[in-house]
Amino acid sequence: MAGVLQRDGEGYDTSALRHHGDVDAQPGLLDFAVNVQGAAPPRWLRDRLAATLDGLARYPSAAHDAAARAAVARRHGRRPDEVLVLAGSAEGFALLPALRPRLACVVHPGFTEPEAALRGAGVAVTRVLTDEADGHRLCPADVPADADLVVIGNPTNPTGVLHPASAIRALARPGRVLVVDEAFADALPGEPESLAAAGDVPGLLVLRSLTKTWALAGLRAGYALAAPDLLARLAAPRPQWPVGTIALEAVVACSEPAAVAQAQRAAERLVAARADQAAALAAVPGVTVLPGDAPYLLLRLPDGHGERVRAGLRAAGVAVRRGDTFPGLSADHLRVAVRPPEQVARLVDALEKALEKALEKALHEIEVPA
Predict the structure, then answer these.
(1) Is the pTM of this model over 0.85?
(2) How do residues 312-346 score in pLDDT, each as one tens digit?
(3) What is the pLDDT of residues 112-155, one digit of tens each?
(4) Which of 213, 254, 257, 279 is the residue whose CA sits 20 to 30 A from 303?
(5) Structural domains in the chain, sorted by start
């Protein structure tokens, strides 16, 4: 089934593109809105980062950047000159306008920051909306041939859909930059369908993040993988010393074999936890859990009840990620992170009660007085 194509000038709102889960997850709420695993980095990583503090009087060194690029290159079987260390993968999205695309295409529902950055720089953007009835599957033929920059997530946020690498490869063509957001790739055992090591795909630009697995959202650390000439174009507008010493050390540490093995074990645990959470949520009357593979789940609620349910959850002290700021989704979609069983039990209880109240209120509103 084909997706829906939206070109510029159709009057859709762009102000919601800057909304992210941290806005929903206010202090004091049980956080299902942000997809970061754990409350803090593991002790060994904190100690490793803390050891850099005595050197903060010095500017970040070229040697440290080279060490980070070399560590990433070894991790993915690439050359160091095919690695660009970033202040979080979000910096990579912010740099996309430097590639000067004539027409960008963003596959949605997906992470909104790339489109926000492109539109903010005056780049024409086309949206391809995948179809829930088709499992939000990517159809390469839906992407317009004249798009010279294409952005897609894998696994996609917020649907959690993992697209086949072959389907993403089919989007590549001469003169096109193919941006693949793999922020959650290391949260899947074995990183299936990843193109991080695919140096043979023309125009491929893979963005990776350390935020999710290593609980480093406040540090801003990630990297890009691409051909050297493409990375040079991407990096052209960067200031001097764009990545700090602590973030460079995080990239080195999290790319080493022991860390990769630890991430693999964590991903295996997440698979089991996700399955259990999906089953618990699917048992709530009126809740549909959409298929996916990422460390979060996309829920669909009965038509017209999403905003009331979200408000009810918030009143019960539970934060979830609203769905209506993602192109292609509605207020009846909610995204929830995978969390420990005791937290899931609280979510399920609050969701059941919020849904019951929302349905009762809706029924009362449509009753005709005798």
Answers:
(1) yes
(2) 999 999 999 999 999 999 999 999 999 999 999 99
(3) 999 999 999 999 999 999 999 999 999 999 999 999 999 999 99
(4) 279
(5) 19-35+265-363 (3.90.1150.10), 43-255 (3.40.640.10)
Phi and psi angles of residue 151, each rounded to the nearest 5 degrees, phi first: -120, 130
Determine the length of the chain: 370
Mean pLDDT for all residues in the chain: 94
Q: What is the DSSP letter of 319?
A: E
Nearest to 335 by CA among 167, 168, 153: 153
Determine the 3-state secondary structure of 2 from DSSP. coil
Say if residue 368's pLDDT is above 60. Answer: no
Give the torsion through C-alpha atoms of 184, 186, 187, 193, to 10 deg: 80
pLDDT at 91 over 50: yes
Strand segments, DSSP code E, in 32-176 are 83-86, 103-108, 124-129, 149-153
Looking at residue 301, the DSSP 8-state letter turns out to be: P
Q: Are 107 and 130 in contact (CB under 8 A)?
A: yes
β-strand partners of 152: 180
Residue 229, CA distances (Å) to 86, 157, 202, 305 in order = 16, 28, 12, 50
Three-class SS state of 186:
helix
Q: Three-state SS for 208?
A: strand
3-state secondary structure at position 144: coil
Take residue 282 and report the two structure tokens written for it: 């699917």
Q: What is the pLDDT of residues 206-221, one digit of tens each?
A: 999 999 999 999 999 9
Count the neighbouring beta carbons within 10 Å of the beta carbon of residue 89: 25
pLDDT value for 21: 85
User: How many Cα atoms occupy the beta-carbon half-sphere of 145 within 13 Å?
Assistant: 0
